[in-house]
Amino acid sequence: MQKDDSHYHCSAEWHFAQLTGKGSHFAPLLYTFAFHLSKTSGIFSASKVRLTEYFGVDDKTIRKACRLLVALGFFEIVSEEPGATVRYKLIRHKDWAAEHPGRCVQKMETPWTNEPGADPLGVQLHAISGHRFTTFPNIVKGIRKTGHGEQAICEHFRSFVAQELPKGTQWRNGFAGRFIKHLKEQPIIQ
Predict the structure, then answer these.
(1) What is the reported pLDDT for 135?
(2) Rg (CA), the chain
(3) How far apart are alpha carbons 108 and 131 in whole angstroms?
(4) Largest Cα–Cα distance in the chain?
(5) Among 8, 23, 40, 71, which residue carries the largest CB count within 10 Å?
(6) Mean per-residue pLDDT for 101-116?
(7) Cβ-based neighbours of 139, under 8 Å, separated by 6 or more
(8) What is the pTM of this model?
(9) Residue 144: is it exposed, middle or buried by C-beta count within 10 angstroms (0-12/13-18/19+)?
């Protein structure tokens, strides 16, 4: 199941949100908890009795969640012996994705991704703004023409955002022009 129009990168949580049926609501909790218990070894082997006590759910919920995680490929059974706790190897999403091509959601590209010679400064400013300021290539060119170096531009941008405190459409309505004007008024720092 692949989807091409997400605003976010794929994650195990996205796959868990697609689950239906019994145990599906508990599988994400168990997956996360398993990583807490197995951070050193990467092997999860908690007793189902203790898990039912800890989470306050019935053992069927635990078993179904484990089966779902195995069926999805996020848990791999290492050993399963009668009367013993089942041991699972935990599979991180990036490793899972490599083994299951075409099953992950794809993040939409930003406007500057496919531009020839795309400027990494645009990506930095977009990130600094909390992903609210869209830095189209012509805007980044205008910002660079002020003569400031990349690090100085980023520092000025942080302080300008803190000073302006833009909200909603204020990120679009003249924000880039005001920032460029602000940069031109500052002494050039490389």
Answers:
(1) 81
(2) 24
(3) 13
(4) 75
(5) 23
(6) 68
(7) 122, 176
(8) 0.61
(9) middle
Average pLDDT over residues 108-127: 70
How far apart CA 183 and CA 63 sit, in angstroms, is: 60
Task: Measure the CA–CA gap between 93 and 86, rounded to whole angstroms.
Answer: 21
| Strand, coil or helix: 159 | helix
Mean pLDDT value across residues 52-60? 94
Rounded Cα distance, 157 and 180, in Å: 10
User: What integer pLDDT is reported at residue 37 of this predicted model?
Assistant: 93
Region of 124 please: left (phi>0), alpha (psi -120 to 50) or beta. alpha
Pull the structure tokens for residue 44: 């999860």
* pLDDT over 90, % of the chain: 55
Q: Give the bridge partners for 89, in sequence order.
A: 43, 76
Q: Which secondary-structure segment (H or E) carries 34? A: helix 27-37
Rounded to a whole number of angstroms, the distance between the first and last alpha carbons of the chain is 48
3-state secondary structure (DSSP) of residue 131: coil
The mean-pLDDT minimum among 3-12, 35-44, 76-85, 181-190 falls in 3-12
Paired tokens of 55: 């989470």
The DSSP call for residue 142 is: H
